[in-house]
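[audit] Reproducing an earlier prediction to check determinism. Same input, same settings, fresh worker. If the tokens differ from the archived copy the diff job will pick it up downstream; this log only records the rerun itself.
[audit] input (922 residues):
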Amino acid sequence: MASPGHSDLGEVASELKAPERRAAVATAGLEWRPMEGEDCGLHYGDGPNEAQDSDFPAAERSRLQEMLSLLGLEAYQAQKLSLQDSLQISSDSMKNWAPQVPKDLPWHFLRKLQALNAEARNTTMVLDLSADARPAEKESQMEEGVIYWDPAEDAAADDIYSFSELPTPDTPVNPLDLLCALLLCSDGSLRQEVLFKMALCQFALPLVLPDSENHDHTFLLWALRGVVRTWWSQPPRGLGSLREDSVVLPRAPAFAFVRMDVSSNSKSQLLNAILSPGRRHWDCFWHRDLGLGTSAREIADGLVEISWFFPSGSEDLDVFPEPVAFLNLRGDIGSHWLQFKLLTEVSSAVFILTDNVSKKEYKLLYSMRESSTRYYFILSPYRGKRNANLRYLNRLIPALKMDPSHVLVKVSSTDGEGFVRRVRAILRGVARAPCRRVSVEDMAQAARKLGLRVDEDCDACQKGRDRMERITRKIKDADAYRRDELRLQGEPGRKAAQAERELCQLQWAPEPPEKPRAELRRRVLELREQQYSLEPAAGVQEFVAGISSPCPRERQYFLRWLEWGLARLGQPRPRQPPDALLALRPKRGASELGEPPRPEPLGVEHFLRELGQCYEAESCLVEAGRLPAGHRRFAHFPGLAVELLLTGLPLELVDGSTLSIPARWVTGLLKELHARLDRRSRLVVVSALGVPGTGKSTLLNTMFGLRFATGRSCSPRGAFMQLLTVAEGFSQDLGCDHILAIDSGALIGGAPASAGDRFELEASLATLLMGLSNVTVVSLAETKDIPAAVLHAFLRLEKTGHVPNCQFVYQNLHDLPASSPKPRDRRPLLEAPGELGRAAAQMEKQGGGFRVLAGLAFCDPERQHVWHVPSLWHGVPPMAAVSLAYSEAIFELKRCLLENVRNGLSNQNKNIQQLIELVRRL
């Protein structure tokens, strides 16, 4: 006699398609066999590693190809779209353009996302059809109401796919289809960047990416690993603190929301309401009422999205006291059983939205009776089906270990806010009780067991991780590792930098005495010999092997793994509660907010700095004739570093520990870059200077899609450079082939007298960067808060005849809600020299006193050289999204900078050879 489980499964199997039946049989722990007459080659894309059959319907098999062709992405299916491809500067970078044809949509979405524009999803359309112009079939295929073909209802249908026609150039493309198509055609770096920017905009992130054509769904662990969030962590006992980590690591309760058959209630709108603090409504999940939510999904069914609630420490805003994950399956669970099975295995509770619980739905869920997950139903019953729903629900309640309180009914007359409060109360109750807590890494492990592909499991990624671990497992204490392993940056390196700085100053003296110069040269040579005698440590050799890999993907994976591995070495520190920081905000300037500067954390730049010191020492000995040029061991190091620069890694231009420029190393880098770029070596240099807390790195990242370090925990020092390519069709118009963006460390905002020796180093740094740049963006906290180092740089550069083009940007002004100031608002900044200006003039021996800044930097108050930028966040982090006004103001600043370059209003564009000469002079 068959077991009860076998018998029940047999009943439901006749009503399921092949992949559903296979998943149901697997759930029961039995072996799957095709039913009599069943075509076991006809699958619908939810089984792991299913073989395609030649008889697979052509319309279904080509659906992905048709979508990629429509969007112009078919060329990137094999040769993936890279991050560098998406960052090219073109004529579109200077205008707020709208997509005209479907092939514009991916690029429009990427540009909006790069600029942190929260409208990125809302504007991805070709033509916004009015409701009455929409075909009836499309109108009915709403986000939570997709039509599924039922042979019992339409036995005479000639073409079962006719209800869901592919988009044409005249119809909108569903934003989820666009996202899936773009991610399927992107490499690992671009996927990470897309998800990172989506997280900043508070969009829900893809977790399981469906591939309907190849029947091979991908769990996006690697893509999510780059998303880092900061939240208020309150342990059961002890003091709370701010925690910063990748979203894939913390274990938290996870709640899945799925649809069975048809639901009148929208999952996504319910999730948005649950996640929204106070009266502020977030649209984390795309839903049917957001413009294109009604356009049919063609390839995105089966997508699983994830979003989190992170507490801020504010009782008024925190919906949940701890991080909570929310999972959303797009499409019906009967058609995506594999994804549903994954959600049941990783979730603390599963909420099933449906209008109908018939015999088929009953048998589907009955097969899950061994699951330990809590199940809840959210019903909006059809008229006349109340009794049928109750009959099957009463049979499911004991099978799924539920009780009547697990069944919620919501109809149109139900109070929406009250219903959301009720669901939140259930979620809090589950989270407070002992429940399953998983990280995204744990979810990936469950996905592997079910046969889903995990993006992180490719060979190149695993080799990069293994190499990173060989380096980091030996690092017990970051300071000790720097002292013992990165030896060339220690005392000999600092003394050599100081001696070379003094030697450089003597060279510009009117009549430099020869004896001190000879003594300094001897000291430099001794120190470089001492450095050269030290062999690179094992960790540095491992690093060189990693960036020397012939496989570009393996190099990129290794560097990203190393960034994260080194970041996790820093011990978490208790921080002030957010309320205390907010209370301080009106009373203190941005340069004083937060915590004291922390010690410089160990990063990838320290390993590259070690390579630079090896090259510096060797080059110095070759120049002095102490080492034959044929015996060089480190001559290839600049080539390795430039390869990283060309793939998007910021390289250090000014040493962060000594605030000096390693001239031989930087010259070697630029010469190698010139050789790599060949004839396309015309440059525009854009730099950013500013005091702490003014968001200059975020500004550059938002403006150009760059990867400069942000946040006080990063403690960026020195200066870093990153290269952007100008599209060939636009380079002649713009007058350059590449843009070199330079981000500097924070400058001291106070008076020079209180800064000591560091002020002179910062003034030299500001002079160097402004001298190299076509345009310098000076980021300020208040209208008169110009760093003294910048004032000194102005005066020093004026003596050389170099007139810098500066754009002054200041943010977080409580008394200035407008994003664009009137001319009279700019005058105080440009006309009042103030105490710091007078002190600068005195130190620079300007007998006539300090003239107004407008006269020095041609900052005409009637022209836009001063920008008021709204606050970055719309709300209170971590649940705040980037402000749309911030994104729009930064775009306008970018447009103005590029216009200045194109119209010749900035300093003359340079080629790399001229830049090398400027580095030597400055």
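[audit] rerun output stored. Observation attached for the diff report: The mean pLDDT is 79.
[audit] end
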